[in-house]
Write a structure and sequence with these properties.
Aminopeptidase, binds pyroglutamic acid
C-alpha cells in the first residue's frame, strides 16, 4: 500500500470556506486505488505554508504528494503544469503582501509538475468533469507550495511524484458571492478522486 499526502488550504481572503480543506478532511484515511490518502490542511501564509507541508512530508514519508487549492472564478478542474520562483500577491492570512520576491533565493526559475497531469485531465473529461491543464499556478500560496515541494524533492534527490491541482469554488462560496459560480462540493471531491486514481 502506498501513501498519498493530499493537502488542502484553510480559508483565505473573503472566502468563508475552502472546499479543499473540506475535501482533504473527507478523504483522509480513504483508499483510492493503491493509495491510502493522508489528508492535511495548510495555512495560507507565505512564511509558513511550505514549511508546514515539508514537515508533513518528512514525518509521513509519502509516495506521492498532491496539493489542492481553490481557484475561485475558474470553472474547471485545473492540474497545474508549472510553478515559478516568485512570491507576489494579495495579502496572506497574516497580512503579508510580498512583491516580486523569489521563493528560493537563486533557485531555478520554475519546476514542472511530476504528476500525470495529461492523464488526469483525460480521465476527468471521460467522466464528464470539465478539466484542463493550467499553465500558471499564479504567484500566491498555491504556486508557493508547489514550487517549494518540487524544489525540496529535487534537492533531496527523491523521486516522489508531486504537483498541484486547482479546483473551482463550491456552492457554499457562490451562494455568498453572486459574482462567483460554483460546483457542488461532492462533484469537486469526486473529481479529486478521479485525478488521484491516475497516479501510478
Ligand atoms: N488557493 C490560493 C491559496 C489557497 C487556496 O486555496 C491560491 O490559489 O494560491
Amino acid at each position: 500500500m502506498k501513501k498519498l499526502l493530499l493537502t488542502g488550504f484553510e480559508p483565505f481572503l473573503d472566502h468563508g470556506v475552502n472546499p479543499t480543506e473540506l475535501i482533504v478532511k473527507a478523504l483522509d484515511g480513504k483508499m483510492i486505488g493503491d493509495y491510502q490518502v493522508i489528508g492535511r490542511v495548510l495555512p495560507v501564509e507565505f512564511g509558513r505554508s511550505a514549511d508546514v507541508l515539508l514537515g508533513f512530508i518528512q514525518k509521513l514519508g509519502p509516495d506521492a504528494i498532491i496539493s489542492l487549492g481553490l481557484a475561485a472564478g475558474r470553472d474547471k478542474i485545473t492540474p497545474e503544469r508549472v510553478a515559478i520562483n516568485v512570491n507576489d500577491g494579495v495579502a496572506d492570512n497574516k497580512g503579508r503582501v510580498p512583491v516580486d520576491e523569489p521563493i528560493v533565493k537563486d533557485g531555478p526559475d520554475a519546476y514542472f509538475s511530476t504528476l500525470p497531469i495529461r492523464q488526469m485531465v483525460n480521465a476527468l473529461l471521460e467522466n464528464g468533469i470539465p478539466a484542463m491543464i493550467s499553465n500558471s499556478a499564479g504567484t500566491y500560496l498555491c504556486n508557493n507550495v508547489m514550487y517549494s515541494v518540487r524544489h525540496y524533492i529535487e534537492v533531496s534527490g527523491k523521486s516522489i511524484p508531486a504537483g498541484f491541482i486547482h479546483v473551482p469554488a463550491s456552492f457554499e462560496l457562490s451562494v455568498k458571492n453572486y459574482e462567483l459560480s460554483g460546483w457542488p462540493l461532492e462533484t469537486i471531491r469526486y473529481a479529486v478522486e478521479i485525478a488521484v486514481g491516475e497516479l501510478e
